Amino acid sequence: MTAKYVDTITVKEFLGQKDIFVKFDQSINFIIGLNGTGKTTFINLIRASLHGDSRSLKEIDFSEVLITFHPISGKSKPTLLIRRKHDIPRAAVVYQYKASARSEPIEFVATPENRPSLHNWNLAFLPFTGDDDEQERSPIAEFLPKTIWLPLHRGLLSQKGTIADNKNPVDQKISQLITTTTKYLSSLDGIYAKKIEEFQQNYFLSLLNATVEKLDEASQLDLNEEQISLEQIFREFFKDNTKYKNSIKNHFDRAKRSISHFSEEKPLRYNDFIAISDTIRLHKLVENWNDLQKDKDETFSPKTKFSNLLNNLLVNKSFRFDERNQPLFHANNKKIDIANLSSGEKQLFIMLSTSLIQENTPFIYLADEPELSLHIEWQRKLVGNLRNLNPHAQIIFATHSPDIVAGNQRQVIRMESIIESLRR
Prior knowledge:
The chain is α/β, with parallel strands linked by helices and 424 residues long. Helices cover 42% and strands 19% of the residues. Among the domains are: 1-24 and 34-146 and 406-424, no CATH class; 211-299, no CATH class.
């Protein structure tokens, strides 16, 4: 899969009528329209095209779809042309992908029985697919942008059951997301663990590179802050503070006396030189540690951001990840099984965690009526929260809700206007 966004879509004979053309924003898009205007059909057509879902494409009334992509880098605009073919045995769907206007097309033909019926070295045959969650199973997927589709329907959201209940698609989705989220957050733990290891290695190597310190540097240090920072470093590696707290205090007591003697130009003993020199060397350790903490905050910012967003939305509940990166919900100091959350809370968790696990990489987020079961306040904040978790997402939502759109009126695609243009 390659990093690109949808730029334009042209559909020939949409709904068996005339051609339509739609220009998309690279960040946010809302497809709105009255019932019967083709809003759901259009979002399903986009989804099926980007997933290489030949089975669904066969059920939609159109003759040809041309999608122009906007690349994340470079100037060439790739295109995907999808045609319904009826002039070969057992009607097929033909995919033609071009990396640029001048490049040779790569074609795939999907037939019901996956039997090659054309002798063309440029054609590869693939079976009809229909798995919404497994875009990568289609051979065409390697040329398409990563796309997430959330088919949230009232029937699914109203079902109840446990995570292990195979009859509950919503809880199945949550279970899958928990596994993926845990894996992603554990990878962040691994990144930080490597940085801790580098910090330790650099410290021990510094002991072999002794230099003569300038004693006047010590008088410029805030020793109280230095002591606090050093205690934080030791706390990272030792759970029992009795093993280090007194030693740290004694060192800084000696350092304060020695620096005071130096500032007052009093004679310095050998121990004074050692105390001042060690303090300067420890300051460099503290500086490196502070840099590491900034890296730590940046490394875990997706996890922190997700938890903060969810906690700001939840009412009478709290959320956190445990030490194994498993999601935990609490109410009245009691743990709540995620299967017992309300349908709206489940949907919120699904949508936010889906954005989180994209690891801040470009992807296209598709959903039909994402407002279902969401409180109005949640609807207003949904798109902003998704973009907050991953600013590189292109959002394409079909919706009836003005609250989902909120202040993004310029990103609205009105099906009535598109259909009206068909009749002219």
